[in-house]
Amino acid sequence: MSEQRVVRPTPISGFPEWTPQVRAVEQRWLDHIRAGFESFGFASVETPSVESLDVLMAKGETSQEVYTLHRLQSDAKDDSDARLGLHFDLTVPFARYVAQHFNELTFPFKRYQTQRVWRGERPQEGRFREFTQCDIDVINVDSVPLHFDAELPRIVHQVLTGLDLPAWTLNVNNRKVLQGFYEGLGVKDPVAVIRAVDKLHKIGDEGVRGILLGDGLTGEQADACLALARIRGADAAERVAALGVTSPLLTEGLDELTFVLDELADLPEGSVVADLSIARGLDYYTGTVYEASFDDDPGYGSICAGGRYENLAGQFIRRRLPGVGISIGLTRIFAKLVAEGRIEEGRACPTDVMVVVPGAERRADALRTGALLRERGFNTEVFHSTAKVGKQIQYAAKKGIPFVWFPPFEDGGEHEVKDMGSGEQASADPATWQGAAG
């Protein structure tokens, strides 16, 4: 008999996984986020992990990020998997979903979607190859009311505030402000400038200025673009006007940005701030854009981002279906807090009560007791063997199970329950016991 080959388990970079105690907290976060989204009337959808490459490429510059799909033992003549890839975000699959189910949906369609996504990029702090995103989007036929651009930050504020995170700020801008300003300057390719300005937080003013000059802008134009990007705060519109650049698109963008900020004026000061350096380099954003980061670690990366898009779903259907969406980067936020020891771990298992098995002849009684407690809403496990009672109690203690149940050890005996926290043990009836309050 040949010796079995042992594969040494090693973590795969960029694919985080948690212990049960940490995963329990992550699940509570997911429940909290779901409840927050639903409280504003958003409905849940889920799309396949895999999309056709034609769908994935609809977003633009993403080919280097997409993991393609193929079978290890695929038939050389079968190319059915050749044009499939794992989705790298949830917005493009959602746009495809809306187009595909157009006649079944009620518009404006408000959906939330919480799933894992995959990106083929170099793992580093805050960047993963596999991670969970929590998205909300509104798509409508022909136009999306601007008040949704304000509602999404309000939802995010409610959700993130409830997670007791380190201080964070949601920065808001409008692509029409940027594009209109650049057009007013006489820039020939405003989108190229937007892409350059989107790198501002990574390469700084001089790095961006160098890109702009290399793209053919004059020094005066480049300096004006950087002056615009430095504007931040409630008086953004007035400071833009002071730069002396005008265009109809710029005016429209400032009006929309002012509307969003005014709608959110009741939130705590500093929660949502106009920041004209926020560009969001992806081509399909057309109006409001969002980006949130931790106040004490802005270089960590955005923890929440999104914006308005006019025609992403139009890639898949001959209807105008604009939308606005925002995404919470759950894994990026959660991983940081875990690494910094800010997560108070949960229990190793969800069990409320463990029922002791006194002996083989009493196992049926233990199973009936477990079933009754389960029917009454207690998460209950019956011990898996007839080991000594002390060993069964040790097992419950190690797993952090708060109560141990002792069914009668002999005919006519009483049930008893032990509170593992206090050590107290008392008689109890499985049909009426109330748990910690009993």
Q: Nutshell version of this structure?
A:
The protein has 438 residues and is α/β, with parallel strands linked by helices.
Structure, described:
It contains 13 helices and 15 strands. The mean pLDDT is 92. The protein is 34% helix and 18% strand. The protein folds into 2 domains: 20-71 and 80-339, 2-Layer Sandwich (BirA Bifunctional Protein, domain 2); 353-437, Rossmann fold. Strand 11 (353-355), helix 12 (363-375) and strand 12 form a beta-alpha-beta unit. The strands form 3 sheets. It has an 8-stranded mixed β-sheet with strand order 1-4-5-10-9-8-6-7. Strands 12-11-13-14-15 form a 5-stranded mixed β-sheet, with helices on one face. A two-stranded antiparallel sheet has the order 2-3. The protein starts with 19 loop residues before the first helix and ends in an 11-residue tail after the last strand. The protein has helices at 20-39, 53-56, 91-100, 147-161, 175-185, 190-197, 200-214, 219-229, 236-242, 248-263, 330-339, 363-375, 389-399, and strands at residues 43-44, 50-52, 84-86, 109-118, 130-139, 168-174, 272-274, 285-294, 304-309, 323-328, 353-355, 380-382, 403-406, 416-419, 425-427. It is elongated, with a radius of gyration of 28 Å. By secondary structure, it is of the alpha/beta class.
